[in-house]
Amino acid sequence: xxxxxxxxxxxxxxxxxxxxxxxxxxxxxxxxxxxxxxxxxxxxxxxxxxxxxxxxxxxxxxxxxxxxxxxxxxxxxxxxxxxxxxxxxxxxxxxxxxxxxxxxxxxxxxxxxxxxxxxxxxxxxxxxxxxxxxxxxxxxxxxxxxxxxxxxxxxxxxxxxxxxxxxxxxxxxxxxxxxxxxxxxxxxxxxxxxxxxxxxxxxxxxxxxxxxxxxxxxxxxxxxxxxxxxxxxxxxxxxxxxxxxxxxxxxxxxxxxxxxxxxxxxxx
Length: 268
Prior knowledge:
This is Nitroreductase. The chain has 268 residues and is α+β, with helices and mostly antiparallel strands. 44% of the residues lie in helices and 10% in strands.
């Protein structure tokens, strides 16, 4: 890889430090935050039927504010939320969700979209934000990471030249040291985008729950049709649709069921 041998390993000793504006997790969170968080996580369910009442604008906007705080690889935030408010579009979107009750009865409908194609513009915008418009330029490994590593990982072309270049580079470096082994295909970039979008979607649903509202994520939908409805470019991909609102008593299809802890958590 270009630049320093391993910029990621040098991130712990940075000249460019961003001071957190919000309180970071600390022991006090166990009493101030944990009870509410547990209640939110345990209370969030996929609700299949809502009462149809819209969620107040200020609540929705606050939930979106929480959603975009989700972790994002390289802070590129390669996703978009489409809050569908137009009545005709909502009706058509419900049809494209196969008339699932979670869409038809929802007070709000949000389409979560992966936008890996925006990585370059997002990188520039985030760099401007993080460097105060270039007045506080990146230094050392941070500069190498954002100016060299990220473009090297994200660049694509219609002939697959960049993917082949990465594949050979990862193979060569991987013979003698630990190294990332993707992205080397278009599918790798697609997976990356849907992961970023899904992380933000989970934040949105948890925030909705904390505000007293319920949600229903739906991936079994007509994604090409939704893309056409929203006028998305061919490089944008629908990750899921989220129905949200006040759930009805019969909105839960069954009691909560999960696989045993030991089948999902492996201690090694």
